[in-house]
Amino acid sequence: MRALRKVSAGPGLELVDIPEPVCGPKDVKVRVARAGLCGTDLHLEGWDDWAASTVRVPMTVGHEFFGEVVQVGSDVDHVTVGDLVSGEGHIVCGTCRNCRAGRRHLCIHTVGVGVNRDGAFADHVVIPATNAWVQPTDLDPDLGALFDPLGNAVHTALQWPVAGEDVVVTGAGPIGVMATAVARHAGARRIAVTDLSARRLELALAAGADHVVDVSLGETLREAQEALGMLEGFDIGLEMSGAPGAVEDLLANMNHGGRVAMLGLPQDRYAIDWGRVITHMITLRGIYGREMFETWYLMGSMLASSARLRSAVSSVVTGRYPAHEWQAAFAEARAGQGGKVVLDWT
């Protein structure tokens, strides 16, 4: 089968032919239809310090995917051949304290598909059956491939109740845009979104933002508050950028008692105005991945009940490439000017 792999320790990937993966007794084998590019994949392709310290080569990359089950293990009884599934990319141990307490997203032994084991940029991928989320038969394959990053957006946006609240989203990448759509669906009062890319800010407006802040033009959240007629600051912050300047501007514009969910991973350590955090009683909470599997139930329910949300989420896919054009797909994703880029493996 075809597989896009890290074949040696260093920059680059190669599309190679390898044997199909073996399906164990508790696994399912999925024929991949669509797979989305993530920032993680860009780190792996570029081979930065994090990638070099994390990945053992050779390995197939990719963890956002949708496809058809073509084989199930002998111990699997809840997934069948022919099911259409999205994959939860975090595989947990099931035995640590958090797993046994039902907090599987906090597993201390998490293994990442396409990071710590062979992933989904391939014709076939094998995952534990418990990580396969069965989808409706009429689901658009592009939307099916978005469930992993959409789960990040839902986990972040719904960390606290947003109904009636003023929300700021820093970072209008695909997850930031989807978080904007989710916050709008959940009843946010006013939503402001910041980014450096005019194209991405257009996507945020289409997804439900009331006001966008183009940081590349020197615009600020203080000006956004004035434009929106706000007097006291934002109630909820969704930090998706990992950019120190974005975090500084966000904290400077939070209301007293404001709550900030932080998903964006920074490249380096950075300073935070802890005096403001303390005296304004701002709550900061780190977010990683999805709650297994409450977030998945929420995603399915919201998408099934709202055509507007389905359209807004689907709109983040702005690049589609056949698998053999993976280099062009990576180039578009690395440019950081559009939305989600998807590889077609059919």
From TrEMBL:
Coiled coil: none
Top-rank taxon, per record: Bacteria
InterPro entries: ADH-like_C (IPR013149), ADH-like_N (IPR013154), ADH_Zn_CS (IPR002328), GroES-like_sf (IPR011032), NAD(P)-bd_dom_sf (IPR036291), Zn_alcohol_dh (IPR050129)
Cofactor(s) recorded in Swiss-Prot or TrEMBL: Zn(2+)
E.C. number(s) listed in UniProt: 1.1.1.103
One example GO MF annotation: L-threonine 3-dehydrogenase activity
The Alcohol dehydrogenase-like N-terminal domain, residue ranges: 24-133
Group of enzyme by EC: oxidoreductase
Domain (Alcohol dehydrogenase-like C-terminal): residue spans on this chain: 174-302
Alphabetical keyword list: Metal-binding, Oxidoreductase, Zinc
Pfam families referenced in this protein's UniProt entry, alphabetically: ADH_N, ADH_zinc_N
PROSITE patterns, alphabetized: ADH_ZINC
Similarity comment text for this entry: Belongs to the zinc-containing alcohol dehydrogenase family.
Protein name: L-threonine 3-dehydrogenase
Organism in which the protein naturally occurs: Phycicoccus endophyticus
Gene behind the chain: tdh
